[in-house]
TrEMBL record, chain A:
Keyword set, alphabetical order: Cell membrane, Electron transport, Heme, Iron, Membrane, Metal-binding, Nitrate assimilation, Oxidoreductase, Transmembrane, Transmembrane helix, Transport
Domain NarG-like: 14-232
UniProt family annotation: In the N-terminal section; belongs to the nitrate reductase alpha subunit family. In the C-terminal section; belongs to the nitrate reductase gamma subunit family.
Physiological role: Does not seem to have nitrate reductase activity.
Required cofactor names: Mo-bis(molybdopterin guanine dinucleotide); heme b
Database matches in InterPro entries: Heme-iron_electron_transfer, NarG-like_domain, NarG-like_sf, Nitrate_red_gam
Keyword Oxidoreductase part of the UniProt annotation: yes
Binding positions (heme b): 63, 73, 195, 213
Gene: narI
Keyword Oxidoreductase listed: yes
TM helices/strands, residue ranges: 12-33, 54-81, 93-116, 136-154, 190-208
The protein's name in its UniProt record: Nitrate reductase-like protein NarX
Automatic annotation (TrEMBL), chain B:
GO cellular component labels: cell envelope; membrane; nitrate reductase complex
Domain 4Fe-4S ferredoxin-type: residue ranges: 7-36, 173-206, 207-236
Enzyme Commission number, as recorded: 1.7.99.4
Full protein name: Nitrate reductase subunit beta
Subcellular location(s) of the protein: Cell envelope
NCBIfam families, A to Z: narH
Superkingdom assignment: Bacteria
Keywords: 4Fe-4S, Electron transport, Iron, Iron-sulfur, Metal-binding, Oxidoreductase, Repeat, Transport
Enzyme class: oxidoreductase
Gene Ontology molecular function: any one: 4 iron, 4 sulfur cluster binding
Length: 254, 510
């Protein structure tokens, strides 16, 4: 056992090393399992047919807010402070920008999620279509998002400012660098710690919820031919082509 | 030229009595499940009327089908690729459940379980979406037989401008007909083009358009793109579902359930051969009124030796070519040219066609004190009665009344000739000649329209025969194949019997 981990204590080791790795393992294995076993269930599970007035605003607000929030997390967690400073962005400038943009994105995401949760709770048609995975996902996602935005509000907007890039980000990168640094996060404010833990849980739940539709973002549609033809016989992959070629060519065994 | 075969349908609307047997048997077969209670893969509408879902034909509102952009290119009316991806989170042009109707069930237990007593138990309707008692205020055939027409039918999108004014006050005495609708299995399907996941596809062998349930991710763009609103969201599975043209039956050489159970025997099923390379060009025809001819041009004459040779080269088996020559659908669409597509102006090149009804005109003749059996009265009515004609033209010919009038004249001449023949008279050959029919053709057409038996109406070759024939064709080609590498010929012999290899894959894989 490495001396630093030992110094952190058993609880710290469990929370900040074992738990994240377990969650990531569930995330990875869960996705493989779900993709292989449940293509039929792999969907965004749209309820726009049943209710569209709240969705009209709630869904774009939530999704676009989420994209911005995710981008912010990638920059804040994955990019070391030394890199941004090397690029000429000072600590103060970085945090001012991050708090400003992050607040806008966070508020959009929270408002959107609030509307989506509200329509799910208040519209009976949708409440009845809500399945157990949604009952897990919606609270978990809401808690994570609320913890995250309150950590920012408490520490960085109204508080004196907390440099999570020196602590939480170090722990986060350690997980993926396979050299865990649990001691980096043990001193962080409670809100940040709770946010990190609920995020781990969210990743563990991900493959078993409708969140899998994230991986089906249809980017390929931008380049695909409009018409899709397929042969009735089982083909290994769908044959997509705009216009079939005029002359038949002999084809060898595939 | 790349020839493909297509199983297509024609419906003779004069024979439709609006009994909804097709809708009910279809529902029992395909959509009697949770999540698609509101969906009718086949429905029967009363026209004039707003239809199901309400006003689905108003593409300014629903943005279905294709249109031409300023440079004459074919584009989806609902917008380009980027716009589609941006509307993934909330599709602004998706009909809500209220545009269809709130599906209900009844408290049957209340009937069965009520104790003996003086009161008669009732079964109250309950919404299947909320489980609560609900008032039934709309349905898939709410306006059946023009019910509520004074209130609603003015909303029929086919009644545009002046026509609406004229019809609003008198049409309930004027005409009515039923329009059975199912997925059109279009040659240029907008639903497939709009599917972000690439889950929807058209089958090369028989043209049937299907949704791959394993690949659908519930982006619901197909519902918007289909101008006929014949793709539905299953709200329980979150995936798209649509009419399958009963493909398991078609593959077995049987007619679709709606055709099989049609009481009026008004449906015809058969093969059409078409040139897949010319589809895009035909759909991009500039003038909407030329689309009908453009689509007819894409369909190929199955008796033409050149077409037969090209079809063989494309791997279409012999029994299918034989079936294509006997196709009642081809006869009605191309030989006698009395079948018309529904809303050709949507530019999807639909493959369920209709023989337009003469009954609105006959009704009008009767209402005006004329004699329905006197061809002169009917001819005069076809020429002068603009209301039903314009209405039919808006449905079937992108507004070209002359085309609809031509078909109705043909039907009138046929009717009058065969009436005389049946009464033992000479027949009205002059009338026939005026509409371009010979006495022999008239007999044939009359047979097809009036007496065609089961095997004449449904000419559907089974798919397993096709496999065998394709394999034989490939075997026959092997020894004379010189362009391929030697290994290819050897390899193919081994592959016989593997269904994936029974024909050439056109083009590359994307």
């Amino acid at each position: 056992m490495n001396p630093i981990a030992a110094a952190t204590g058993g609880a710290g080791l469990l929370l900040w090393v074992a738990f994240p790795y377990i969650c990531l393992a569930v995330f990875a294995v869960g996705h493989v399992w779900r993709y292989r076993q449940d293509q039929f269930g792999w969907t965004s599970r749209t309820t726009q047919l049943l209710e569209h007035r709240w969705l009209r605003w709630g869904s774009p607000l939530f999704h676009l807010g989420a994209f911005a929030v995710i981008a912010g997390h990638v920059i804040g967690l994955a990019v070391p402070a030394s890199w941004t400073e090397a690029a000429g962005i000072g600590e103060h400038a970085y945090h001012t920008t991050a708090v400003a943009l992050g607040s806008v994105a966070g508020v959009a995401m929270v408002t959107g999620l609030g509307m989506l949760c509200a329509r799910r709770l208040l519209t009976r048609r949708i409440r009845l279509t809500t399945d157990p995975s949604d009952k897990l996902l919606f609270p978990l996602l809401s808690i994570t998002v609320l913890l995250g935005i309150s950590a920012t509000a408490v520490e960085n907007v109204f508080g004196g400012g907390y440099d999570y890039r020196a602590t939480v980000s170090v722990w986060f990168r350690g997980i993926f660098a396979l050299s865990p640094r649990p001691e980096a996060i043990t001193g962080a404010p409670l809100l940040f710690q709770l946010h990190a833990l609920s995020a781990c849980l969210l990743f563990a739940a991900w493959p078993f919820t409708r969140l899998v539709h994230v991986w089906s973002a249809p980017i390929g549609y931008l380049a695909r031919p409009y018409l899709v033809y397929r042969r009735r016989a089982a083909t290994p992959a769908p044959v997509t082509h705009e216009v079939p070629t005029p002359e038949p060519r002999p084809r060898r065994a595939a | 030229m790349r020839i493909m075969a297509h199983v297509a349908m024609v419906m003779n609307l004069d024979k439709c009595i609006g009994c909804h047997t097709c809708s009910v048997t279809c529902k029992q077969t395909w959509t009697n499940r949770t999540g698609v209670e509101y969906a009718w893969f086949n429905n029967v509408e009363t026209k004039p009327g707003v239809g199901y879902p309400r006003r689905y034909e108003d593409q300014r509102q629903w943005k279905g089908g294709w249109t031409l952009d300023k440079r004459g290119r074919l584009v989806l009316r609902s917008g380009g690729r980027v716009k589609r991806l941006l509307s993934l989170f909330s599709n602004p042009d998706l009909p809500g459940i209220e545009d269809y109707y709130e599906p209900v069930t009844y408290d049957y237990d209340n009937l069965v379980g009520a104790p003996a007593g003086d009161d008669i138990p009732v079964a109250r309707p309950r919404s299947v979406l909320t489980g609560r008692p609900t008032a039934i205020t709309w349905g898939a055939n709410w306006e059946d037989g023009l019910g509520g027409a004074p209130e609603h039918a003015g909303g029929d999108p086919n009644l545009g401008g002046e026509l609406a004014e004229k019809v609003r006050f008198e049409f309930e005495q004027t005409f009515l007909f039923h329009l059975p609708r199912l997925c059109e299995h279009c040659l240029n399907p907008a639903c497939i083009a709009a599917c972000p996941s690439g889950a929807m596809y058209k089958r090369v062998e028989d043209g049937i358009v299907l949704v791959d349930q394993d690949r659908c991710r519930g982006w619901r763009m197909c519902v918007t793109a289909c101008p006929y609103k014949k793709v539905y969201v299953n709200h329980a599975t979150g995936k798209a579902e649509k009419c399958t043209f009963c493909f398991p039956r078609i593959e077995a050489g049987q007619p679709t359930v709606c055709s099989e159970t049609c009481v009026g025997r008004l449906r015809y099923l058969g093969l059409l051969l078409y040139d897949a390379d010319r589809v895009g060009q035909a759909a991009a025809t500039e003038d909407e009124k030329d689309l009908l001819d453009a689509q007819r041009d894409v369909l190929l004459d199955p008796s033409d030796p050149g077409v037969i040779a090209a079809a063989r080269a494309s791997g279409i088996p012999e029994d299918w070519l034989e079936a294509a020559r006997r196709s009642p659908v081809y006869a009605l669409i191309a030989t006698y040219r009395i079948a018309l597509p529904l809303h050709p102006e949507y530019r999807t090149l639909p493959m369920v066609w209709y023989v337009p009804p003469l009954s609105p005109v006959l009704d009008a003749v009767g209402a005006a004190g004329g004699d329905q059996d006197d061809p002169d009265h009917v001819f005069a009515a076809v020429a002068r009665l603009r209301i039903p004609l314009e209405y039919l033209a808006n449905l079937f010919t992108a507004g070209d009344t002359d085309l609809v009038a031509g078909v109705l004249m043909k039907l009138t001449a046929l009717r009058s000739h065969m009436r005389e023949r049946t009464l033992g008279e000479a027949g009205d050959e002059a009338g026939l000649e005026a509409v371009g029919l010979t006495a022999g053709e008239a007999e044939d057409l009359h047979r097809l329209l009036a007496v065609a038996k089961y095997e004449d109406r449904y000419v559907v070759p089974a798919a397993h025969k096709e496999d065998a024939a394709a394999l034989t064709a490939m075997e026959n080609r092997c020894p004379v194949e010189t362009s391929g590498e030697p290994a290819a010929a050897g390899g193919r012999r081994v592959m016989l019997g593997l269904p994936t290899l029974r024909r050439h894959t056109p083009g590359g894989r994307a």
